[in-house]
Design a protein that fits this description.
alpha+beta, 6-stranded antiparallel beta sheet, 5-stranded antiparallel beta sheet, disordered C terminus
């Protein structure tokens, strides 16, 4: 694979190993005297521990986004929902909150000491994913009766919509469009394994049906979900293939089946914000209903009823849906292991339909589903936030701790022994801030966290978080007991950028995002509006053709300025009663090797916020508890002059020796250094595909239509029932030995999805965008 196809995903993970067999200084314990745990209490200064202040100088390497969210403004004209943010300035200088710095340091301190997670909320529910088309082989249309009784039906395609416009084809043949749950008599015909409705009448009506050769009359119920798929033409008729429906027994307790349904419907709801369903506008500016199709592309198709119709969210008597069937032990023994009893094998699909039992219920034929385990179940218990003060890890004891909600323990919080003092900028705003006129600079769309992407978030096991899940693992086998989470999310430093030219608009007439500077595209900026929906290139085949219009909508934000590279901030870190290892870990973070950077502020996936920390010798002084004791014994005593930096370096060396002796800590350290250093040989950007018109040797430029999800769709591409060769890639671990991700080629331009579309039979549907972004995809689940 050529180098121009390789890239780094904006985020990766520093592994978080189970907190077992760690050196004694990194163990759990209480910071209070008299409590069981590691070391002495911290309610007084101890002779061999350090107290004082550490002066720190912060130098901005890539533009820093310090945005004043309290003073957002709307566009001068255009989309009202698009927000424009000014730089936060106080006293004529850029304002960097001390809490932001403390948060940055705490996250890094948690990682390097392999501490507990300070916060791990909202990860105890199972995540959802979209099933492939072959899953439908084990599904049958059903009617749920009272008391959890399930009746099996057959189904036939019922033509309802124009293929291109999505408009109803009714009235037609003297009939109005059938309504959901309406009882019909229909003439059906089967051809090539597919059954369709030829014509129908309302049951009990005066009309008579005429039957031709190869046709038959059936009775059934209309199952209507609306024009929720591009080029959708048909709904479904659930009909009886005999005088009475077949009763299908459950494979497990009805309460479990019902809970599965409720959890799945809740997951559907979490995937979309209310504004996506209820605030859409028709071309005339009026508000469209959620079940209405108003156009093509993302947010324009009808939303499926189970997302917005309360009457179709619960699993009660009279519900039409689909059942997933499984074989019981008797049928499995009869198969004698020759066939897969999961419905995915066509050979056993018929047997399942005749003898299978109901395992799960779904609102649609190719549905979302829930993984077997929640993220919280895959995190080792020793890494969860401390439940009480006797379990605090190093980061908790140094930076502070608050008991998780609902624990009801006393004490319920600990202040910690580190404070970040006021932060001052050495330059005034005129010198430090780069300002943008008009409506500001439109930022690229930021990707929302998507833990459903198990290939990126999961490790082979809890014990080996540095080993990503194996490439080619089917998505159905993700989030299973025995697997583990990768660790703590971190953002790559964007190495190799030209500090001056990369962060400017340039002087040419081309779209700035389509021109490479020192080999890198301006990934931080949103491309201008696409010339068309086809992704037409410029004549030279080097870039996408765009208009002069900027793209500003609910998917992105604009900024009025940023803090320039080279700007310097100063602040003080006050510490109290830290031992050599605690102080040493902090010193390690404050003195990273040259060319290594921390990440701070907003927009880090886009390259913003790389900052360098160094010690300010003049503002640093550290004294031991013994020196403070001597000082307080005499009213006239003074603290001795000491070399605070030398003491810091000594503590750092103590910490480094400890890390060097533990394999898991070395792996954590190496991963942190790799991310802080970046890789100048690889561009950093969200996954994307490469159209076939891009010249050889030219990296794929940012697509102005968006559609980053197309890479994930291609990554899930299957051949038969297996992931295609060189697909199913997991996020590589940080390090030189890892094989980078690659931009997948698109062989034909007409296979490149329109903005918001997905491609590939049975392909997964992914939402990849900033807050407020409407998810793409042909089907509006």
């Amino acid at each position: 694979m050529s180098d121009d196809m390789k890239f780094l995903n904006p985020y990766t993970f520093v592994p978080a190993f189970p907190r077992k067999d760690l050196p004694e200084p990194l163990g759990n314990g209480s910071p209070l005297d008299g409590e069981a745990g590691r070391g002495a209490g911290r309610d007084r200064l101890h002779p061999d521990r350090w107290t004082g202040r550490i002066g720190v100088r912060l130098i901005v390497e890539t533009p820093l986004l310090l945005l004043d969210t309290a003073r957002t403004m709307a566009l001068s004209e255009g989309a009202d929902a698009h927000r424009v943010y000014p730089v936060q300035v106080r006293g004529g200088r850029p304002h960097l909150a001390a809490t932001s710095l403390k948060g940055m340091l705490r996250s890094a301190y948690e990682a390097v000491t392999n501490s507990r997670f300070g916060v791990f909320d909202g990860h105890d529910t199972r995540l959802g994913f979209r099933r492939g088309a072959d899953y439908a082989l084990g599904m049958v249309p059903v009617l749920v009766g009272s008391g959890g009784v399930v009746y099996g039906f057959e189904q036939a395609a019922l033509e309802m919509y124009d293929r291109d416009s999505g408009e109803s084809v009714y009235p037609r043949d003297g009939q109005e469009a059938p309504r959901h749950l309406e009882r019909l008599q229909a003439v059906i015909r089967s051809k090539g394994g597919a059954t369709s409705v030829v014509r129908f009448v309302r049951k009990g009506g005066p009309e008579k049906l005429v039957v031709a050769d190869g046709e038959r009359v059936v009775e059934g119920i209309a199952f209507i979900t609306g024009p929720n798929i591009e080029k959708k033409t048909s709904e479904r008729l659930f009909y009886l293939d005999g005088p009475e429906p077949r009763r299908i027994p459950p494979a497990r307790a009805w309460s479990e089946i019902e809970k599965q349904w409720n959890d799945l419907i809740a997951d559907y709801g979490k995937a979309h914000k209310p504004a996506e369903l209820y605030d859409r506008e028709r071309p005339d500016g009026s508000i469209a209903g959620p079940g209405e199709r108003i156009g093509d592309g993302p947010g324009q198709l009808a939303w499926s009823p189970h997302l917005h119709d309360e009457s179709r969210k619960d699993i009660k008597g009279g519900r039409l849906c689909y059942a997933r069937l499984v074989c019981d032990d008797r049928v499995k023994r009869r198969c004698a292991g020759r066939l897969e009893c999961d419905g995915g094998n066509r050979d056993c699909a018929d047997r399942l339909r005749k003898e299978g039992r109901v395992d799960r219920l779904y609102p649609v034929l190719i549905p979302r589903d829930l993984y077997h385990a929640s993220p919280a179940e895959l995190l080792d218990e020793s890494l969860l936030p401390a439940a009480h003060i006797g379990e605090l890890s190093p980061a908790d004891r140094v930076f502070g701790w608050v008991a998780p909600d609902g624990k009801g323990v006393r004490p319920s919080a600990y202040r910690g022994r580190l404070r970040v003092g006021p932060v001052t900028c050495e330059q005034d705003a005129d010198e430090a801030v780069e300002r943008f006129g008009g409506d500001g600079l439109p930022l690229a769309i930021l990707g929302r966290p998507k833990p459903q992407q198990g290939r990126f978030y999961l490790a082979e096991s809890m014990e080996e978080p540095d080993r990503p899940i194996k490439d080619g693992t089917s998505k159905e086998k993700l989030y299973r007991p025995g697997q583990g989470l990768r660790g703590r999310k971190v953002y790559w430093h964007h190495a190799g950028l030209n500090r001056r030219d990369h962060w400017s608009e340039g002087q040419g007439t081309h779209d700035p995002t389509q021109v490479r500077i020192n080999g890198y595209y301006r990934e931080y900026r949103r491309p201008r509006a696409p010339y068309d929906d086809k992704g037409t290139p410029t004549p030279d085949g080097k870039r996408y053709r765009t208009k002069e219009t900027e793209q500003r909508d609910t998917q992105n934000r604009s900024i009025k300025g940023w803090v320039r590279p080279g700007t310097t901030f100063r602040f003080v870190v006050e510490v109290r009663d830290l031992d050599d290892h605690e102080l040493g870990a902090l010193a390690w973070l404050l003195t990273l090797p040259p060319g290594h950077f921390h990440r701070l502020g907003l927009g880090r996936p886009l390259g913003f916020g790389s900052v360098r920390l160094d010690i300010d010798e003049e503002s640093t002084e550290l004294h031991s508890g013994a020196e403070y004791a001597d000082h307080y014994r005499s009213l006239s005593g003074t603290l001795p002059d000491t070399d605070g930096v030398k003491r810091l370096i000594g503590a750092r060396e103590t910490f480094e020796r400890m890390v060097e002796g533990v394999d898991s800590l070395r792996k954590v350290r190496d991963a942190m250094l790799a991310v802080a250093r970046g890789n100048p040989k690889l561009p950093v950007h969200y996954p994307r595909t490469r159209p076939d018109w891009v010249q050889e040797g030219v990296p794929a430029p940012p697509d102005p239509r968006g559609g980053n999800y197309a890479w994930f769709t291609e990554n899930e591409r299957s051949e038969g029932r297996r992931i295609a060769p060189d697909r199913g890639r997991s996020l590589p671990a940080p390090g030189e030995a890892a094989t980078p991700l690659v931009v997948y080629p698109v062989k034909k331009e007409d296979e490149q999805p329109k903005k918001g579309n997905r491609t590939g039979k049975g392909a997964s549907h992914y939402k990849w965008g900033e807050k407020g972004q409407k998810s793409g995809g042909r089907k509006r689940y």
